[in-house]
Amino acid sequence: MNAPDFWWTSNGTWQAKLLSPLGALYGFLAARRFKYNPRYKAKQPVICIGNFTAGGTGKTPFALALNALLREAGHTPGFLLRGYGGTNKGPLLVDPSNYAAAEVGDEALLLARRGPTVISADRAAGAKLLEQQDISVIIMDDGFQNPSLHKDFSIVLLDAKTGIGNARCIPAGPLRMPFKKQLGRVSLLMVVGEGNKSELQQEAAQQAGIDLMRAAIRPVSADALEGERVLAFAGIGRPEKLFASLKEAGAEVVETMSFPDHHYFTKEDARLILRVAEAQDLLPITTTKDYVRLDGREEQSIARLANVASVLEVEMKIEDPDALLERLKPVLGSAKV
């Protein structure tokens, strides 16, 4: 599902108020589970990339940026994630040439192009498999709230434009558990993008002695889209991020289509996208994560869409990468290089 609009409305909507009892129960149970001691500590240091809320804040682009940064510094990272959206629960070492997004999830395929990647619903079991690979550090994409695996360092991403929304827990709001319960295990708060909706959370983090750094998601080679009339489609946590990025890149976004997060596109979806795009002479364009769910499939309409669709590639730009490396030194000190 995609995050409902009322999650991001600061004033209490009737939907949020109606769902608040369920949200309070969800938050209570999640916070109680969060207190459990990890049942496994990996042989290599684990750096977790997480967020306070459900929905996209750029964890996978950040994991890729961190991977590049660590490799430049002489480390050999491997990726660990759940494999959300795939049928295989793992633990499984992902070979992108042998597995499809329907099996291992779109994020796993993207990460596996950059380094050893293991998916596992059981993070501890996944870490045991990953530590057998030729790696020196584990980058854990998501799983901040999962207590099964010890994290040596947790970087939590916070969207500057949305903050924590209405500050309520799922399903009344976007929080995975009460904000203050999560704050105590944050090693570093990474504020992503520009905006003023996260100032209270930034202030709370600073008062708790947590370091703050900044990053931003930027389109790659966006100049080619200047003046291009497009149909933008996406099945990600917050599709509006794609639409906004395209407008910022100078594209004319004529039509938009939003699908549930990690949506597995059907033949009917592809036919609809193609029909609307062709009727108005629009360029279909989507995200990298969505494209890997189209690429390589044999259904005629989906293969045709994959052939004509463009991809808005983005990358996470860390404002001060040297400062981040310095902050990680105590964690990486024991890692082999």
Give the terminus-to-terminus CA distance: 41 Å
State the CATH superfamily name of the largest domain.
P-loop containing nucleotide triphosphate hydrolases
Structural class call reads alpha/beta
- How confident overall, as mean pLDDT? 94
Short account of what is shown:
The protein is α/β, with parallel strands linked by helices and 337 residues long. Helices cover 34% and strands 20% of the residues.
List keywords for this structure.
about 20% strand; Rossmann fold; four-stranded parallel β-sheet; about 325 residues; alpha/beta; nine-stranded mixed β-sheet; 2 domains
What does this structure look like?
45% of the residues are buried. Helix content is 34%, strand content 20%. It folds into two domains: 46-217 and 317-332, P-loop containing nucleotide triphosphate hydrolases (Rossmann fold), CATH 3.40.50; 221-312, Rossmann fold (3-Layer(aba) Sandwich), CATH 3.40.50. It has 337 residues and is an alpha/beta fold. Helix 8 (240-248) links the parallel strand 9 and strand 10. Helix 9 (267-279) packs across helix 11 (300-308). The strands form two sheets. A nine-stranded mixed β-sheet has the order 3-4-2-5-1-6-7-8-13, with helices on both faces. A four-stranded parallel β-sheet has the order 10-9-11-12. The model has no long low-confidence stretch (mean pLDDT 94). It has helices spanning 14-34, 59-72, 101-104, 106-112, 123-130, 179-183, 199-207, 240-248, 267-279, 288-291, 300-308, 321-332; strands at 46-51, 77-81, 92-93, 117-119, 137-141, 153-159, 188-192, 211-219, 229-234, 252-258, 283-287, 310-312, 314-318.
